[in-house]
């Protein structure tokens, strides 16, 4: 009996099982939805003003960047929760079930956790630079030119998204470690 490959429409998203995951998924889903709506509305308004009324919406690009950071990184955290990040994972497609496959999945998850841990560190440094400024004193904070929006508002989205991605990638590593050690028994 051959198993047909799962198509994009058949992907089943994970439902959060514990209170922490329910709060995280609800929060990031709400942020992602709100930012998608606000970005769409903002771009439609800017386009209407520019091409119909021949008026420029002053500094709207700054708001677009801020909302886009929150959209992308909240979506990335949701992708990490669901295990739906884009990847060229040939192991699941071409390696038969067994020790080699479980080891390769474990190795992939280990590398992902190490790299995402490094990204969390740099994301923290990135946020802290924006929050405390180049001198580390809270003076001369980097801000946008037109609306004077502090950069740390965007950098916070990067840091929070990376932290939750790291947590869910670590969860996947724990799962693949258990499967490797248990010999495939779940």
Q: Could you please describe the fold and organization of this structure?
A:
This protein has one domain. The chain is 67% helix and 0% strand. It is mainly α. The model has no long low-confidence stretch (mean pLDDT 88). The protein is built from five helices and no strands. The longest helix has 34 residues.
Rg calc? 21 Å
Q: State the shape.
A: elongated
Query: What distance lies between the first and last C-alpha atoms, to the nearest angstrom?
Result: 22 Å
Number of alpha- plus pi-helical segments = 5
Which sheet architecture does the biggest sheet show?
Answer: none
Quick synopsis:
This protein has 186 residues and is mostly helical. The chain is 67% helix and 0% strand. The longest helix is centred in the middle third of the chain and has 34 residues, at 99-132.
Give the helices and strands, then pairings.
Layout: H1 19-51, H2 60-82, H3 91-94, H4 99-132, H5 152-182
Helix pairs in contact: 1-2, 2-5, 4-5
Features:
186 residues; 67% helix; mainly alpha
